Amino acid sequence: VGTLHSKRRQLLPKVKGGTEETTTGVLRLRAMEKDRALKYPIIAVNDAYTKYLFDNRYGTGQSTLDGILRATNILLAGKNFVVCGYGWCGKGIAMRAQGMGASVIVTEVNPLRALEATMNGFRVMPIAEAATIGDIFVTATGDTSIIRKEHMQRMKDGAILANSGHFNVEVNQKDLAEISSRKRNVRPNLDEYTIKNGRALYLLAEGRLVNLAAAEGHPSEVMDMSFANQALCVEYIARNDRMEPKVYEVPKEIDENIAKLKLGSMHIKIDKLTKEQKKYLSTWELGTT
Amino acid sequence: VGTLHSKRRQLLPKVKGGTEETTTGVLRLRAMEKDRALKYPIIAVNDAYTKYLFDNRYGTGQSTLDGILRATNILLAGKNFVVCGYGWCGKGIAMRAQGMGASVIVTEVNPLRALEATMNGFRVMPIAEAATIGDIFVTATGDTSIIRKEHMQRMKDGAILANSGHFNVEVNQKDLAEISSRKRNVRPNLDEYTIKNGRALYLLAEGRLVNLAAAEGHPSEVMDMSFANQALCVEYIARNDRMEPKVYEVPKEIDENIAKLKLGSMHIKIDKLTKEQKKYLSTWELGTT
Amino acid sequence: VGTLHSKRRQLLPKVKGGTEETTTGVLRLRAMEKDRALKYPIIAVNDAYTKYLFDNRYGTGQSTLDGILRATNILLAGKNFVVCGYGWCGKGIAMRAQGMGASVIVTEVNPLRALEATMNGFRVMPIAEAATIGDIFVTATGDTSIIRKEHMQRMKDGAILANSGHFNVEVNQKDLAEISSRKRNVRPNLDEYTIKNGRALYLLAEGRLVNLAAAEGHPSEVMDMSFANQALCVEYIARNDRMEPKVYEVPKEIDENIAKLKLGSMHIKIDKLTKEQKKYLSTWELGTT
Amino acid sequence: VGTLHSKRRQLLPKVKGGTEETTTGVLRLRAMEKDRALKYPIIAVNDAYTKYLFDNRYGTGQSTLDGILRATNILLAGKNFVVCGYGWCGKGIAMRAQGMGASVIVTEVNPLRALEATMNGFRVMPIAEAATIGDIFVTATGDTSIIRKEHMQRMKDGAILANSGHFNVEVNQKDLAEISSRKRNVRPNLDEYTIKNGRALYLLAEGRLVNLAAAEGHPSEVMDMSFANQALCVEYIARNDRMEPKVYEVPKEIDENIAKLKLGSMHIKIDKLTKEQKKYLSTWELGTT
């Protein structure tokens, strides 16, 4: 998109539209739209319910644990499992870690999310406190330096650090190197850092996304819905002659249709509203005005 | 609100503003706003995150099971527990029924919700199919005639019917009376209907909201957040001289502040963004535009 | 049994046999057997798999939470729920409390049970430590003075104390009275004790079994299996002319038959071993000798 | 052991004792004891609580899912996951599969186990019925030909077959070959069989134990307890001069001591009985005789 709008502008007239898969991309495109710089319509596939709700929670949730197991072969049952960040990814990771028998601790900066984590039965506390308790730490915040020197120095011998949220900045590796006297690779994606206090910390996949680096990323059952959004949105653009150069939501019909197709592929049938039910719903809405 | 805007309009000049707790009320007020009939500002407390997210899921979830237990003293473990509707209430009920050892079945008309229920490990099927399997049925749809004659006639002997979603119309009681040869009250909030095919069906609390009728409604830990929204929004209106006669969202600051106060009352501390983290977040957003 | 063996011995010749439902009773009868004082055969129904495994875990598990809800209408989600004792009752209570969204803490004296609780994802710690964290405490140990003065004095304002294990001695009420300046009944089965440090503690059902006192005890789906054991064991004795005056286990056939009948009543079918499978099992056992 | 007792009998006088890790081994040794063929004492490490309870449930439970993920990278959430056999291994697998968001179905031949699975919230049905519903099948029975031709022919396209219980006989591979028109290896440990009805079935790890073949077997946190039993039992034999040539249980003190050491290594503290509690327990037992 960037190239088309800068170096290859002569191609722009031939482009009817596009789609965007990522959060970052959508942010960028909305800024272009605001500046009236966007020259063709784009559908923000990232924001489809069948995309963001499923791949973050179920995809990242499972594949993060998968990555940790492949890198360490550690037993999750009975471990204090610290999830930093309780967005959709964090929710998925926490849910699956509990499902594997771990005792989950959540750290957050947002009080609403912290409260939701609490109500879901997880312990919530500051990272400085969790640092002394945790056996496994996974960051999923989208921010930087979540786990820092002052936390690492208080961790238990053998603590495991992984990131599943963003770039390799959530675990501060400069800090980790600084307080370590030794580093050695134990097995693929598993580096042992000997801290100057004598304890060992284990960093997975060099702090990169552990589900991509140490496992295989999202299962195909999650990606298929993203790709279906891409395909059907491209078709939508192709069939539609009057879209202005804006960022569009995925049409609700496409989103729902993908959910229907997915259910069908799983041999699952659902109900339809009866006439009476449709009428009741509309009467209700009318009735209350 | 209705009276003030119709019979007692002379009082309107003295009213600075108001708040509205319920979904229905908010719908009605938005319609009034649209018609320019609304004469003072109203804050839609119902839509606060600390209101709708917590009372529906955790409040209704728990109190619905509580109502069923008080009315029947049935063992939930091992039962096929059918939840009709997978909105926030249905999500809460399903989660808690599974937590009590039941095997949960969800019925839905919305494919996105149906898919989410599936991914959460619940069986999803049409009500006609669930009717033959379920031991306990709870409706939470906000619509009418969810459980009808054709379903009741296929139910197992001893099946239990309850409603937790809306008025007493979700289980069609006219249908139930029509196919029954006998009705008797077994204990408070528990009526036995002998169907003409010889089987017994049990209706809880005459189809009214089972969590209110047979238990005690939301626990105070849920209501306190709603009331905090009411109080702080009234204060907000009192301190604010320039609100137009519209329906307003609960200010984000109030919503977050309530979550903070709630966490504090539970002795739970959370993190704050460091300067570096704040900068990273803003740089990131800037950087990508 | 006691009367027959002491004051009414003349009736003993007419008694063909008996059954015993409780742990205590079985202990007593085994002692009588040892002393050759037992004059007719007794089947220890208490020890049937279909009795002890189901009523303690599923029956007490559910009904304990039911009792707490009826006595307090408290929200369980987000609470620190302390279970003292991780026998079958404690296991059931812990499982159900987690299922309702609580964060469960287990206290134990037995390291094997403590380890099992840990592996099941619960926090394990001494009661002295749990005392400062817990919102709700339930004892299920079969021993005395589990919660004592020194624990009560460290509890949070508003902590709830209940017993579900044994007589009303697990929460030391003499201690509670001693450190309180005031006691008042708030609602049925809920007494508020104002501790001299100014905090309020709430004792449920006067420390008696909360599932019996504040709820309705085991659901019928649990009791039916106990009673089936009683009935079928009596029949077994009636049909059997050569039983010596000893304490007998419930015959395995009866235990399994009750499980089969129960499954049948729930419309659940299971597999049978094929000829090949039976042969393989026996060959395997033979083959390895 | 076999060699010592047959070809190298001259060494027997020098052997003070031994330990046995496996179920099979223990069975064989008990037979030898019965025949008075056993010439030195053996401690059956397999039967220690800290061995069989933890490695089967937590070890096999986790590593079976790990093996399935490594072999297939399939999403577990929303899948119908069939566990054949509800012994300790099956219990662990079912618990973890539910924890990953699957909807679990259990097949059993034992009605007591079938009932327990039901009460734990799982669907129980014959394998012939589960065959048509399941997405993933895992056998853990210790018997042969659990999944046979007649089941395979009714399975859904894409169904996955794995074994985690015993030798590679639980999924009948002769049957699978017979009804297939084509077999191809898709990726390591994943073979696709094209059934003559056109559907594809996927067999993991050639039907061998999927947790050993496709993952890394039990995590070290499980094995350490087995090895501790080995070591402490050998020490026990070395220090004990009067053991007869029998098969012995692991002394309860050793079993409990290992649990204590394990808890210590996890920084977990537990309570001790007070004097009053010890007295109460003994009085109680005395009192009731």
Q: What report would you give on this structure?
A:
- Four copies of one chain form a homotetramer.
- Chain A is an alpha/beta fold and about 290 residues long.
- Chain A is built from twelve helices and eleven strands.
- Chain A has an eight-stranded mixed beta sheet with strand order 5-4-3-6-7-10-9-8. In chain A, strands 1-2-11 form a three-stranded parallel beta sheet.
- The longest helix of chain A has 24 residues.
- The radius of gyration of chain A is 23 Å and the shape is globular.
- At the A-D interface, helix 3, helix 4 and helix 10 of A face helix 3, helix 4 and helix 10 of D.
Keywords for this entry:
homotetramer; 289 residues; alpha/beta; eight-stranded mixed beta sheet; three-stranded parallel beta sheet; 12 helices
In brief, what are we looking at here?
With 289 residues, chain A is of the alpha/beta class.
Global geometry of chain A: globular
Strand percentage of chain A: 15-25%
Order of helices and strands of chain A: HEHEHEHEHEHEHEHEEEHHEHH
Strand arrangement, major sheet of chain A: 5-4-3-6-7-10-9-8
Share of helical residues of chain A:
40-55%
Oligomer status: homotetramer
Euclidean distance between termini CA atoms of chain A = 46 Å
